């Protein structure tokens, strides 16, 4: 059976046009293949930077979630630690229940409000992207105006 198929394929009739012999064309020409490669290259050149920005912005949620935990812990700490007038104080560092331990892509720090009255002074928490990670150069800043208010929306730079 296989021998018959092979012989049938070899027996493709040759057509003549103007005295020249040609066989029916099978496959793609080099120009067609090059056009496909160029189109794929253009699509990749557009898609790769957009995908990179999407990945970075999705990793910012790691920082905002951790900052939310830090804000909750800082408010709890302030309620338990008061000055001589009975006013709550923001934590003066990362001691106590307020842990500023780094995550995979960010390190965390307080920038304002350390040890100050939590009713009248804001607390600012900064998440900075670690060097050597895709988040290097990205900074997420969250301000808590006082102990009774919610944190303001995060300010993100470096994306």
List keywords for this structure.
159 residues, alpha+beta, four-stranded antiparallel sheet, two-stranded antiparallel ribbon, 2 helices, 6 strands, 38% helix, disordered N terminus
Share in β-strands? 15-25%
- First and last CA, distance: 65 Å
Rg from alpha-carbon coordinates? 33 Å
In DSSP terms (H or I, runs of 4 or more residues), the helix count works out at: 2
Element string (H = helix, E = strand): HEEHEEEE
In which range does the helix fraction lie? 25-40%
Mean pLDDT: 81
Q: How would you characterize the overall build of this protein?
A:
With 159 residues, this protein is of the alpha+beta class. It has one domain (31-157). The chain is built from 2 helices and 6 strands; from the N terminus they run αββαββββ. A hairpin with a 2-residue loop joins β1 (15-17) and β2.
């Amino acid at each position: 059976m296989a021998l018959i198929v092979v012989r049938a394929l070899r027996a493709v009739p040759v057509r003549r046009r103007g005295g020249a012999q040609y066989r029916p064309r099978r496959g793609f020409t080099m120009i067609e293949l090059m056009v496909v490669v160029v189109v794929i290259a253009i699509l990749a050149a557009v898609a790769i930077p957009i995908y990179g920005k999407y990945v970075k912005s999705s990793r910012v949620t790691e920082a905002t979630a951790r900052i939310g935990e830090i804000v909750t812990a800082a408010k709890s700490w302030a309620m338990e630690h008061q000055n001589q007038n009975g006013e709550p104080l923001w934590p003066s560092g990362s001691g106590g229940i307020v842990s500023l331990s780094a995550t995979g892509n960010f390190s965390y720090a307080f920038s304002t409000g350390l040890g100050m009255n939590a009713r009248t002074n804001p607390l600012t928490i900064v998440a900075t992207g670690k060097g050597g990670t895709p988040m290097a150069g990205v900074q997420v800043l969250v301000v808590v105006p006082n102990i009774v208010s919610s944190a303001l929306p995060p300010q993100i730079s470096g994306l």
